[in-house]
Write a structure and sequence with these properties.
Length: 229
C-alpha cells in the first residue's frame, strides 16, 4: 500500500474523532442540553451524521473531562454541579490561574505573548460581532496559553483535570445580561493583556483570581435562573 494512502486511511478516523468531540463538547457546553438531561444518542447521531461508535468514544472523553456522567447500561447524562461544588471548583481554578499568571510573567517568551495578544484581538472581534461561540473559543485558548506559558507541567496537568468540569459554567456566565457579564469579562481581559505585557506577575495574579470569582457569581446566577424557570 502506498505510504500516502496508508496515512490518509489512518488519519481519517482520528480526524473524525476530533471533529465529533469538538462538536459534541460545544453542544453540551453551550447549553443545548440542560444539566441533568440524558444525552440523546440517536438524535445526536442524526444531527452529526455519524454512527454510535464515534459518538460513544467522544462521550468517554467528555466523561473524563467531567462534562457528563456515564450511566452503566443507561447511556449518559449532562453532569449537574451543585452550588457548593461550583464554589469549590471556581476557588481552585482561580488559584491555579493566579499561580499560572505569576509564573507566566517570569517565564513567558515574546512569541508566547504575541500569540496571546493575537488571540485577544480575535476574541475582541467576536465580542463586537456578538459571536459568543467564537468569543468563548478564543477566551479558553487565552487562559490555556497563560497556563502553558507558566512552564510548569504539574500545574498544567492539575489545571486540565478541573478545566473541563467548569467549562459549561464559564460559558453560561457570559449570558448574565443583568450584570452585562460579557462586557465585564472583556474589560478584565484588557487588564490581563496589559499586565502580561508589562510582566507584572503579582498584579496579573490578582486580576485572574478576581476574574474567576466574577465568573462564578454570574455562573451561579445563571444556574439559579434556570432552576426557577
Amino acid at each position: 500500500m502506498p505510504e500516502q494512502d496508508r496515512f490518509e486511511r489512518e488519519a481519517a478516523p482520528s480526524s473524525l474523532h476530533g471533529e465529533v468531540l469538538t462538536r459534541l463538547r460545544d453542544y453540551i457546553v453551550e447549553g443545548d442540553l440542560p444539566a441533568g438531561a440524558r444525552v440523546p444518542e440517536r438524535l445526536l447521531c442524526e444531527r452529526f451524521g455519524i454512527s454510535r461508535t464515534p459518538l460513544r468514544e467522544a462521550l468517554k472523553v467528555l466523561a473524563a473531562e467531567g462534562l457528563i456522567d456515564l450511566l452503566p447500561n443507561r447511556g449518559a447524562r449532562v453532569r449537574q454541579i451543585g452550588e457548593r461544588e461550583l464554589v469549590e471548583l471556581f476557588d481552585v481554578m482561580g488559584g491555579l490561574e493566579a499561580l499560572a499568571g505569576r509564573l507566566a510573567c517570569e517565564r513567558m517568551t515574546d512569541a508566547a505573548f504575541a500569540e496571546i495578544e493575537r488571540l485577544h484581538h480575535a476574541m475582541y472581534g467576536h465580542y463586537l460581532r456578538r459571536d459568543l461561540h467564537g468569543y468563548f473559543a478564543c477566551n479558553q485558548a487565552i487562559h490555556q496559553a497563560i497556563v502553558a506559558a507558566a512552564g510548569n507541567g504539574a500545574l498544567s496537568a492539575t489545571y486540565a483535570t478541573f478545566a473541563g468540569r467548569v467549562r459549561r459554567a464559564r460559558y453560561s456566565a457570559n449570558l448574565d445580561q443583568h450584570r452585562n457579564r460579557w462586557g465585564e469579562a472583556m474589560r478584565e481581559h484588557e487588564q490581563i493583556l496589559d499586565a502580561l505585557h508589562r510582566r507584572a506577575g503579582p498584579e496579573l495574579s490578582d486580576i485572574l483570581f478576581r476574574h474567576l470569582r466574577n465568573k462564578f457569581r454570574s455562573a451561579a446566577d445563571q444556574e439559579a435562573a434556570r432552576d426557577e424557570a
